[in-house]
Amino acid sequence: MQLRLVVEYEGTRLLGWQLQPGGPTVQGELERALAVVLREPVRVRGAGRTDAGVHARGQVAAAVVSRPPPHPSRLLRGLNALLPPDIAVREVALVDDAFDPRRHASSRVYEYRILHHPARSPFWRTWAWHVTRPLDVAAMDAAAALLLGEHDFAAFRGADAKETPRTTVRRVLESRVRHEPPLVVYRVEATAFLKHMVRNIVGTLVEVGLGERSPDAMTALLAGRDRTRAGATAPPHGLTLLEVRY
């Protein structure tokens, strides 16, 4: 049998989702708490691997268990009592053994927040990238719209990616920029993402907003497939995984 978890975390001190030595990870903390509550070692699989410093409101994970777990409400309370303050399980349920949180996902939704204000903000410092120069939000939104549909996103792939994907073609279902003072928010939904893809898109969109590129430069970048011609990678703390859809 399997448990399906919906997990929320504030990623500032975390080294990302994936278990690794040298510091706390979401996967590691979940596995530690589950082992205590279930009294057996458990391996957790996530719908996606968020990087160090990235946040999540609706990460989805699954764990195979060998015997019936406590009632979901008791399990939820027990896990959240053991987890650190920056990680919480929002939902827990028993699901079919065939469920795979990554392969069965139909899309993922991310938002990237930019603090667009001359003064820094203690409130937003771990949740938004602070950009003080004026941004043309309409131009950014026009550029973002050119990413809709199926394209080769090699130009926005992480330069340090250790794994070579089978294909760099991805299908984007939503891509828009809106102004919610003092924030500029980029929202994107796609069937799947390349490593650092959202942050590389945001770095390029900011260059469009600053007038350093025209909105239609996005089309040329997609066609060129050259990572060195796209913008710099935006910092991780502005990025939040909002939802995984099935």
Could you explain the architecture of this structure?
This protein is α+β, with helices and mostly antiparallel strands. It has two domains: 2-95, Alpha-Beta Plaits (2-Layer Sandwich); 107-245, Alpha-Beta Plaits, CATH 3.30.70. The longest helix has 13 residues, at 26-38. The chain is built from five helices and ten strands; from the N terminus they run E-H-E-E-H-E-E-E-H-E-E-E-H-H-E. Strands 1, 2, 3, 4, 5, 6, 7, 8, 9 and 10 form a ten-stranded mixed sheet that branches. A hairpin with a 2-residue loop joins strand 8 (169-180) and strand 9 (183-190).
Can you describe this structure in just a few lines?
With 246 residues, this protein is of the alpha+beta class. The chain contains five helices and ten strands.
What are the defining features of this structure?
246 residues; alpha+beta; Alpha-Beta Plaits; 10-stranded mixed beta sheet; 5 helices; 22% helix; 30% strand
Ranges where pLDDT stays below 50 over 5 or more residues in a row are none
Which fold name fills CATH's third level, the topology of the largest domain? Alpha-Beta Plaits
The end-to-end span amounts to 19 Å
Strand content: 25-35%
Radius of gyration, whole Å? 19 Å
Biggest sheet features: 10 strands, mixed
H-E string: EHEEHEEEHEEEHHE
Number of helices: 5
What is the CATH class of the largest domain?
A: Alpha Beta
Mean pLDDT: 96
Structural class: alpha+beta
Oligomer: single chain
Q: How many domains in all?
A: 2
| Helicity, as a percent range | 10-25%
**CATH homologous superfamily name of the largest domain?**
Pseudouridine synthase I, catalytic domain, C-terminal subdomain
Number of DSSP strands?
10
What is the overall silhouette? globular
Just name the CATH architecture of the largest domain: 2-Layer Sandwich
